[in-house]
Amino acid sequence: MGTKLFVIVGAVLCVAVLGVLSLRKLHYVDPKPAVAFGEGYFSKLKQNQVADAFAMYTDGFMQKRGQDWRKLLNQLNTEKGGVTDFKTVGSQVAPVTLRDSTEIPCVLVRYQVARNSLISEERLTICPRQRGEDWGIAGHEITRSDIGQYFEAGITFQEKTIFKTN
Question: Which of 44, 68, 119, 160 has the smallest count of CB within 10 Å of its CB?
């Protein structure tokens, strides 16, 4: 009886230790501030405050793709008009691992965006800035509903279906 009790207590302790170690890596991320940040971005575009909207991208995004992305959005606004309305479609936490193996909790937010003559689905990857105080747009994807054309810049994610049932 003593050996059996010793094995059970040992197993419970091992499970407890593993549980504590795995919980240390888990962090709760509230996506609401990131969603609100993205809504602020589209609000600025809707009010034609393009410079203020572009200030919401991260420095890394602007250094690598800022000039090209600005041209793309200006061309889209010229051809299809500025943002007239937007709606949040959904969000999910999307952890990003940096080069130094640091993991940051980003949020992938999907919006339906209306312009004068175009509706598009846009996905923003919104991450805490390096200082961790505030958010920044680290990635942006646009899919035009009229011709299915797709544009992306910065940190983006591909969704894969691993298992599907009908």
Answer: 160
- Distance, CA of 27 to CA of 166 (rounded, Å): 33
Domain count, the chain: 1
Average pLDDT of 144-155?
92
Sheet-wide strand order for 83-97: 83-97, 103-115, 118-128, 135-144, 150-154
Q: Is residue 12 part of a domain?
A: no
pTM over 0.70: yes
pLDDT in tens, 35-65: 999 999 999 999 999 999 999 999 989 999 9
Query: Which residue in the block uniquely carries the two structure tokens 């105080």?
Result: 133
For 63, the domain range is 29-154
